[in-house]
UniProtKB/TrEMBL annotation:
<keyword id="KW-0067">ATP-binding</keyword>
<protein>
    <submittedName>
        <fullName>ABC transporter ATP-binding protein</fullName>
    </submittedName>
</protein>
<keyword id="KW-0547">Nucleotide-binding</keyword>
<keyword id="KW-0813">Transport</keyword>
<feature type="domain" description="ABC transporter">
    <location>
        <begin position="4"/>
        <end position="228"/>
    </location>
</feature>
<dbReference type="GO" id="GO:0005524">
    <property type="term" value="F:ATP binding"/>
</dbReference>
């Protein structure tokens, strides 16, 4: 069962004619956790931004459950929870409002959204800052709120772009537990972008290595140990 099918994808940024992705072919299968590993500037974020429809491919196609991503942005946003590296740019919403509103936008009833919001505030230890505005909390706290807004609504696909970056070890472990749980207990298909090899080895089923805009997919994480 194929969730994402990417065929011969290329992305060239108009500014500077920078080729950020080239010749990328990828199948993401239902129920897997696929890691995307690679150094800074390799082209990982460019790839996932195209997968969620935030950037238009220069060449090639991306389909999600058979839908062309660049033509079905509404459906894509209903199916995919996306965690970007810049979650919640400065906003006046409070922590709990941001989570609740996201749940409502994804079609949850008011009472379900409230219950889920309370659950994630508790689970992610955000209770004490629930009424603080996003612009008044720390970058690390904003990342955790970003994770809550990614997950709420039980999306079948999660695309997480370096969700554990700059988190303390305890929070990082909590995020790993949540990722595995979404996959195992809720059947979510997950794409996890990371430059942390330990994270890839411990969380993902399969891994793709991105380098200089190109992607090499490995069948298991075993060969990673030889590459690094
Ligand atoms: P597109 O090809 O999608 O139209 P552009 O080249 O026009 O993209 O750039 C989109 C935005 O990204 C612009 O606001 C630009 O200033 C910014 N940008 C340009 N270079 C970089 C870079 N190296 N890294 C991150 N952002 C950049
Ligand atoms: P990664 O996520 O692996 O760190 P990116 O996809 O962010 O890599 O960047 C890949 C390449 O594309 C880099 O050389 C980066 O500077 C460039 N780039 C990223 N965004 C833009 C942009 N908006 N405009 C121009 N170049 C960009």
């Amino acid at each position: 069962n194929i969730v994402y099918e990417i065929i011969d994808l290329q992305k060239t940024y108009s500014k500077g004619k920078k080729v950020a992705n080239e010749g990328i072919n990828l199948h993401v299968f239902s129920g897997e956790i696929l890691g995307l590993l690679g150094p800074n500037g390799a082209g990982k974020s460019t790839l996932v931004k195209q997968m969620v429809g935030q950037l238009k491919p220069t060449k090639g196609t991306i389909s999600l459950y058979g839908l062309d991503v660049s033509k079905h942005s509404k459906q894509v946003s209903r199916l995919v929870g996306y965690y970007s590296q810049e979650p919640h740019a400065i906003s006046s919403l409070t922590v709990q409002e941001a989570i609740l509103i996201t749940g409502r936008l994804r079609g949850m009833s008011s009472s379900d959204a409230k219950r889920e919001t309370n659950y994630w505030l508790d689970r992610l230890e955000l209770g004490e800052i629930r009424t603080k505005q996003l612009k008044r909390i720390s970058g690390g706290q904003r990342r955790i709120v970003g994770l809550a807004t990614t997950i709420i609504g039980n999306q079948p696909v999660l695309i997480l772009d370096e969700p554990t970056n700059e988190l303390d070890p305890i929070k990082r472990k909590l995020v790993w537990d949540i990722i595995r749980e979404r996959n195992r207990d809720y059947g979510a298909t997950i794409l996890l972008v990371t430059h942390n090899v330990f994270e890839a080895e411990h969380v993902v089923d399969r891994v793709g290595v991105v380098k200089d805009g190109r992607l090499l997919v490995l069948d298991s994480v075993g060969p990673l140990k030889k590459l690094v």
